[in-house]
Specification:
By secondary structure, the chain is of the alpha/beta class. Helices cover 31% and strands 15% of the residues. Helix 7 links the parallel strand 6 and strand 7. Helix 5 packs across helix 7. The model has no long low-confidence stretch (mean pLDDT 96).
Length: 312
């Protein structure tokens, strides 16, 4: 029997479908998780508190496979897990569909200035003309990060007539390499950021990159706030250097109430809601976990497996 420690929230989705070789132990509180962690060979220990997660990982010394619904792995002690030989599977791609839908929603709302329409309705004011006249059709978008989210964004933009260019490590048709995209920034109407948060991507959009963009270019960030030099972005927005910024993520989170991003007309802050705009995340995560359980039993590679060297 393989001792497997899981959050009781998942019990309705998993209990009747777990194979007989799994000795499952459910926890409802962090104290229960701490008590069960030392015996776990397989564990799923997602918690809201990073300190609590750090404690459970410290205790789970026998862990061979750690699963998570989180796509970002900043809260995980990657060096410790690597040294122990623990495999970490994360939630990469779990939220790709709702996040991609959110990206398109934000782009359309910006193109048509839909916020102004809603505000006019709140004022009971009948507008005589559309406040936004941009079209997605015929525009050009650069997708920085062509993982599951970037791919889903492309699938939705192409039917709108958007010309999409991707950035990935292996350049090809319609694709720029990691050293080439900066020189091409000036040709894009939309820059969509969907890269993982690593040391390599931290601050990848700074003052120089913002200066290279078109004056009406719009930045869309559904990655992490750390990939943008936020003070430089505020300066660019205040100066009208770029058209706008659609930010599902910021630094820090929550964004302080007095931060200028809240009040800039050319910025939208959507409070890291894109991945939460769904009701299927645990269902999707449970299905993936069950598939990986069978792979684990057969000694096959688990997916998606975090590359400790790359940091994602």
């Amino acid at each position: 029997m393989t001792v497997t420690v899981l959050n009781a929230v998942l019990r309705p989705l998993l209990e009747r479908r777990l194979p007989e070789w799994v000795d499952v132990r459910w926890y409802e509180t962090k104290e229960q998780a701490f008590a069960l962690a030392p015996a776990a060979e397989i564990g799923w220990f997602d918690m809201h508190s990073k300190a609590d997660m750090a404690e459970v990982f410290r205790l789970a010394e026998r862990l061979k496979w750690l699963n998570s619904v989180y796509a970002g792995v900043e809260a995980f002690p990657l060096d410790v897990l690597a040294a122990r030989g623990t495999v970490l599977t994360n939630g990469a791609g779990i939220n790709a569909v709702p996040i991609a839908e959110y990206v398109v929603m934000l782009m359309l709302a910006e193109a048509k200035q839909y916020r102004q329409v809603v505000r006019a309705q709140d004022r009971h004011e009948w507008l005589r003309d559309s406040p936004g006249k941009r079209e997605l059709f015929g525009s050009k978008a650069l997708i920085l990060g062509y993982g599951a989210i970037g791919q889903e964004v492309e699938r939705r933009l192409v039917p709108f007539g958007v010309e999409v260019t991707r950035v990935r490590r292996s350049p090809g048709p319609g694709t720029l390499g990691p050293d080439a995209w900066r020189a091409e920034l000036g040709q894009f109407d939309w820059i969509v950021i969907a890269v993982p948060a690593t040391a390599e991507t931290e601050g990848m959009i700074g003052a120089d990159e913002l200066a290279a963009m078109k004056r009406n270019a719009v930045l869309v960030n559904v990655a992490r706030g750390s990939v943008i030099d936020q003070p430089a972005l505020v300066n660019a927005l205040e100066a009208g250097q770029i058209g706008g910024a659609l930010l599902d993520v910021t630094t820090p989170e929550p964004l302080p109430a007095d931060h200028p991003l809240w009040t800039l007309d050319n910025a939208q802050v959507t409070m890291h809601l894109s991945g939460r705009a769904q009701d299927r995340v645990f269902e999707r995560a449970a299905e993936r976990f069950l598939v990986n359980l069978e792979r684990y039993r057969q000694g096959e590679r688990l997916e998606p497996q975090v590359d400790y060297a790359a940091g994602y």
